[in-house]
Write a structure and sequence with these properties.
Strand content: 5-15%
Radius of gyration: 16 Å
Order of helices and strands: HHHHHEEEHHH
Structural class: alpha+beta
Largest sheet: 3 strands, antiparallel
Length: 190
């Protein structure tokens, strides 16, 4: 990801969602809530309230930034790799399924690797606009922003090249492993 893309995406686009959300919730009951609580309350069981899009986009972007690291990519290890092999058959099969979800997400949206709470397994999802796994009943582990602003400056209309670069050079499997551990703890506490 180039410096220009990062400055535009994080410095202008993401920051715009933060500023808009802060204006929307100032002085309301949402003002004292965590970001996750705002998302769940404003999703309103699918009858989306105005603050949802900004809140979810702030959260999605923060999660996206934390899904990357310099010199990322490679292959996960430990329990994460074991679950990938169990649930997808192989690491390569996960990558193919994730690429397919990210490539075929029509228009704007996100590709996700999640831990399905009910079935206790890893699943690849895609979502449009600001929708995220928090409102779908899954525990998010990894995301890729497939809105054009995320890749157009570097890759023009070549979304598949952007996806490959993310998976080969940027994804932080350490972050995904940590999120998996947090998911298991959270599920046990419920």
């Amino acid at each position: 990801m180039s410096k220009e893309t990062l400055e535009y995406h994080w410095g202008k686009h993401h920051r715009g969602y933060v500023n808009n959300l802060n204006k929307q919730i100032e002085g309301t009951e949402l003002d004292k809530m965590s970001l996750e609580s705002i998302i769940l309350a404003s999703y309103n069981k699918g009858d989306i309230l105005p603050s949802f899009n900004n809140a979810a986009q702030v959260w999605n972007h923060e999660f996206f930034w934390e899904s990357m690291k310099p010199g990322g990519g490679g292959k996960p290890s430990g329990e994460l790799l074991e679950l990938i092999n169990r649930d997808f058959g192989s690491f390569e099969a996960l990558i193919q399924e994730f690429k397919l979800a990210a490539t075929t997400q029509f228009g704007s949206g996100w590709a996700w690797l999640v831990y399905d709470i009910e079935d206790k397994k890893l699943v690849v999802l895609k979502s449009s606009n600001a929708i995220n796994p928090l409102v779908l009943g899954s525990y998010p582990l990894l995301t890729l922003d497939v809105w054009e602003h995320a890749y157009y400056l570097d890759f023009k209309n070549l979304r598949p090249d952007y996806i490959s670069t993310f998976l080969d050079k940027l994804v932080s499997w350490d972050a995904v492993s940590s999120r998996l551990e947090a998911a298991k703890v959270s599920i046990e506490e419920k």
